[in-house]
Amino acid sequence: MAGVRRFDEGEILAEALDVFWRKGLSATTMQDIAQATGVLRGSLYNAYGGKEEIFLLAFDAYAGRFLAGARKALESTPDPEQALRTLFGAAIASMTRGSPARGCLSTKTATEPAALDDPRLQARLRGLLDGLRGIVLAALSTDAARARLAVTPEEAADLVVTFTRGLAVMERVYQDAGHLERIAAALVRTLFRERRRPVQSGTKITSTQ
């Protein structure tokens, strides 16, 4: 890309991503990006071609970090229930960060008219959700998870991914992290069967028949 080497692309994309996250793709202008990055609009046009191209590159970097964070959360403990709690906790912390809270970038983007008209954007959004589903499915396909799930790992993965989108909408409406945490905890309890308490040695089990 002509002109890219005249500035730090990583910094440019990070600053641009922050603007897109706050204002949304449709409302963001090249002038907004120029002001945030300190790079002239002409240089940005020469290097990238337009705001959509900048957004796609910024979103790719974001998606990579998002999926890496999800994988880290789910691998933080061998307990599948606690792993899901950690995943939801990280998601809630991300979408409620900032003042005002910044929300969920992928969900905000998916609800924009531009998302319906640009197949490149559709592919990015589907790639992120498919990637998240794959990570969740892998975490819930262990023997320990299968033994305790109330549904199949595939069904659980679909529910978890869909639920994260619902959480993003609830955050926009209620703006209450505690409320989101309680909803997430309820889903985790629903996905897993209640653990049976082991019978203590010497305890007699009497029949009621």
Short description:
The protein is mostly helical and 209 residues long. The radius of gyration is 22 Å and the shape is elongated.
CATH class group of the domain at 58-191? Mainly Alpha
What's the SSE pattern?
HHHHHHHHHHH
Q: Counting H and I runs of at least 4 residues, what is the number of helices?
A: 11
* Percentage of residues in strands: under 5%
Helix share, percent? 55-70%
Roughly how many Å is the radius of gyration? 22 Å
What summary fits the major beta sheet? none
| End-to-end distance | 80 Å
Unreliable spans are 1-5, 203-209
What report would you give on this structure?
The chain has 209 residues and is mostly helical. It has a domain at 58-191: Tetracycline Repressor, domain 2 (Orthogonal Bundle), CATH 1.10.357.10. Helix content is 70%, strand content 0%. The protein is built from eleven helices and no strands.
